[in-house]
Specification:
Blueprint lengths: L2 H6 L32 H10 L12
């Protein structure tokens, strides 16, 4: 559940979504506060490794 959804609980949230994104994936259509993020810690580490910048991240982040 997204942060805004948790903060608004137990109130029901409704979104009006207009999209020009192919397939309409909610996590891509700028809905950050109301749509859950499907990525994981492993995804983040993979991205750091892909760009060979994992050694530039402080230990606190990892």
């Amino acid at each position: 559940m997204a942060l805004l959804s948790k903060a608004a609980s137990p109130v029901k949230l409704e979104n009006l979504i207009l999209s020009d994104v192919i397939g309409n994936p909610l996590d891509v259509i700028a809905l950050g506060p109301t749509a859950p993020d499907p990525t994981t810690f492993v995804d983040a580490i993979s991205t750091l490794r892909k760009f060979k910048i994992e050694n530039e991240i402080t230990v606190q982040v990892l």
